[in-house]
Amino acid sequence: MKKLFFFIIGFTVSMLLFAWENNDWLTEYNWAVEDGRDLVTPGAEHIYFHRDQIPNVEFHKFEIPSNSALFQARLRTERFYFLFQTKANENRYNIIGRTFETAPFDIIFRENFSRISITRGNAPWGSRDRVGQQTDPNHPLVGIWGRLPALTEYRLVNPVDVIYYFEIDRAIPVWAVREGTYLIRQTGNNTFETVTSFPDGHLRLEILNETTILMTPLFSLPNESGLTAPLALRRRLRL
Question: pLDDT grade, residue 239 (50/70/90)?
Fold first, then answer.
């Protein structure tokens, strides 16, 4: 019986790993976000989100041109997204994913790299002033731009070993996990972590079975900023 049990468990883990490598298992489904604390501690409190509040997660294969510069952006403390810049067009910053629309930003630096003029889809998108000093002469977008309350910070991020990205389409009620786009890399047999330049973008994803992924924040914040407790991703058919 023990040998049979071990074989079944081993087969299940191998199947899950194969399924993860087959991106259809991820990308052909939506994943609903739920309170996941009771998956870690049976009997723990469970917060139920109203049907119209339930965030949706989609996974996608990560692909950008080689030798691109990749930037992670955080709008205030509300949303993460990623942009990449190629050598062929250094004024164009292409969006990864759909949580911040898809049209690229065309950015011109002015006044000794202290101001940027932005267009998007051939339409003016406004201008932004730099907050603080320029810290990376090779990548002048790095830094904080705008004015309160609409500050956006851009940081370089290294995409090595990134295989997928996922998008959370709206704010998660009560939690401190941000909406937006996240890159992930494998860190264990059934475990993956986000690749991020911001501490509050650090999450761990663990495959529990074919329909459930446990997502755990790997950061802490003051209590008033929201919960940093586990969440569950539940697979469902894409509408």
Answer: low
